[in-house]
Amino acid sequence: MKKYWKPILMWIIFESVAITLWLTKGNLFYLLNFSYIGLSISLGLFLFIRKYKHARRVVQLLVGSYMLVYLGLICRENMQIEGFWYYLFTGVFEAATIHYAVAKIFGPLVFGRGWCGYACWTAMVLDFLPYKVPQEPRRKIGWIRYITFSASLIFVAALFLAKVGNIERIMFWAFIVGNVAYYVTGIALAFALKDNRAFCKYICPITVFLKPMSYFSLFRVKCDTSKCISCGKCKRVCPMDVDVTDNSRKRANGTECILCMECVRNCPKNAL
Ligand code: SF4
Ligand code: SF4
Ligand code: SF4
Predict the structure, then answer these.
(1) How many whole angstroms from 184 Cα to the centroid of ligand 2?
(2) Distance of CA 153 from the midpoint of ligand 2 (Å)
(3) How far is CA 85 from CA 119, 147, 160, 268, in A?
(4) What number does the ligand 3 atom closest to the CA of 262 have?
């Protein structure tokens, strides 16, 4: 059982959040929602430990499609960043606010950018594309994320300042249009830059939260330098260009790690 401590800990964290929110808000949805997500992620970690090749993709499809189809389209909850601003401005502690707090703001202190590797419905589609490992050097255009981040904030603030009616309905359509725009841009960029995760590296506004918080992440891939033979394979298979042989928090692209474990699976010396 000892080797399964990570999925067990992950399940306990999510179940604690589920029960706490259920009891404090008196809403069974929170219990079911966070239990489902926690179980899916724990299942993925369990499958990974059992060396199942597609473990991460199983979780990503389970969680990503649930959030996109059930929460977004059926429950009509805008789970994109503009939904977060909207509920924040209205002062309503709704699913989108809780989702951001858990998955993208405070959660990354524990599980880094696990969201990006195991749950995001945008990456769920992008990861089907052919460039799983970047074929070209990284570009210095990460500043674009600050523009998309600011644009989302300005868009929602403008709706409030202009006292536009029926913002709830606008938020639903913004969710649909935003997702279509993300998919189109993400797929086009992946082919243009020969990198499935180009959208994540340069455009995604959520990384403005994710990157600084994941710098302090409890869960990190670490290198046992006594075993490492500096073959460089871990860097060659990494979709996010992380220098995982450097154990410091300042390692190159350290806040980009999505905990996909490709480096761990491919290390010939089990040094990671
Ligand atoms: S960087 Fe953005 S688009 Fe990419 S996986 Fe993370 S949240 Fe999703
Ligand atoms: S793949 Fe393993 S042995 Fe090779 S450089 Fe990376 S950590 Fe070292
Ligand atoms: S290959 Fe390793 S370092 Fe790169 S993103 Fe995946 S887990 Fe992180």
Answers:
(1) 35
(2) 42
(3) 21, 16, 11, 45
(4) 1
Q: Residue 91 domain-assigned?
A: yes
Q: Is the CB of 33 under 6 A from ligand 1?
A: no
- The secondary structure of 3-32 as a DSSP string is GGHHHHHHHHHHHHHHHHHHHHHT-HHHHH
d(CA 236, CA 216): 25
Regarding whether 257 and 158 lie in a shared domain, the answer is: no
266 C-alpha to center of ligand 2: Å?
8
Domain hosting residue 226, numbered range: 221-272
Question: For residue 91, what pLDDT is reported?
Answer: 76
CATH, residue 225: 3.30.70.20
Closest-approaching ligand to the CA atom of 56: 3
What's the pLDDT at 93? 66
pLDDT, averaged in runs of 10, over the chain (272 residues)? 83 91 87 90 88 91 93 87 87 74 88 92 96 93 96 94 88 93 97 97 96 94 95 96 95 95 94 95
